[in-house]
Amino acid sequence: MKKLLALIVALALCLGMVSAIAESTPVKVGVLVPVMTHGWVSGITYQAEAYAKELEAAGKIEYKLTTSSNAEEMTAQIDEAILWGAQVLVIAPQWTGMEVPVQNAIDQGLVVVAFDMDIDADGVLKVTGDNKSMGVAGAKFIVEKVGPEATVIALPVPTSGSVSELRMAGFNETIAEIAPKLNVIEYATKFTREDGLKDFADILAANPQIDAVYSLDDETSIGVLQAISDAGRTDIKAITGGGGCQEYFQLIEENKDIAVSSSLYSPLMIRDCFDVALAKLAGEEVEAVTVIPSQIVDASNVADYLDPSNTIY
After folding, report:
1. Domain span holding position 83
2. Taking each helix axis from N to C terminus, what angle separates 270-281 and 39-57, rounded to the nearest 10 degrees?
3. Model pLDDT for residues 266-287, shown as the tens digit of each residue
4. What pTM was computed for the model?
5. Over the stretch 232-244, which tens digit does the pLDDT of each residue have?
6. Which CATH number belongs to the domain containing residue 90 in this structure?
7. 180: how many CB neighbours lie within 10 A of its CB?
8. What share of the chain is helix, strand, coil (3-state, %, to 5)?
9. Are 185 and 104 members of one domain?
10. Where are the beta strands (DSSP E) in the chain?
11. Residues 171 and 64 both lie in one domain
């Protein structure tokens, strides 16, 4: 009897040790991100790797990061991650066509969290920002700075599809509510500083009086600010942006003549993909879609967002 009790105690201790080891074993995470080219997309890759390193150093995960330029490359990398033994995939595709490989991964038991992209697969989780709230925040900022009857140039980006549509909808709906007499003039541009500079130089020539600029993107705004400086214009008193660009944050801090702001739609949000995935794997209840609300960054709080180590975006 004593031998049996000793055997049971020993077995319990062994099971406890196995359980403790299992709990301390790092989760294998496949991180699939775009090739670092420029701007916001490069910021995604930078932040994903930075956070993966933090989690690995804390003993929470083991990760393997791969970059791709198209859906075909990412599909192959998903297969490689599965063969490696990944339990989680954090993916940030910038293209359509990921439905089949993502569904295959989920069907094999992996937790898959997509960043800022709708993927038609059963069980995929998503983390995204709130484009419409960016427009709401931008509208309120501009009216606060220049009043309800000013002349504002809005810079939609039709080629960006729903991103521009939602940001403009939030802006226009809010203006209709709080400043219906605001004179809003729209000019199409793109999400690059080069287009912001070139297009706004033409806009300045065509509009002798402008009070504010509703720009949807930080890099576009960098170009706009350069165009304003080159033209020596002093009539413009406020400009918005969107994203989370460190260079633009520096301009917010430095600019004294124009009230500069950015509505955050930051690559930092990809960090939430890791947190959501690990929570799901641990059996916690998570939302299918996690929406990160937009926040305004301006002169009052920009110091909180400056990251001297981030030279990417």
Report:
1. 25-128+267-282
2. 40
3. 898 999 999 999 999 999 999 9
4. 0.80
5. 999 999 999 999 9
6. 3.40.50.2300
7. 9
8. 50, 20, 30
9. no
10. 27-34, 61-68, 88-91, 111-115, 125-129, 151-155, 183-186, 212-215, 238-239, 242-243, 259-260, 262-264, 289-292, 296-297
11. no
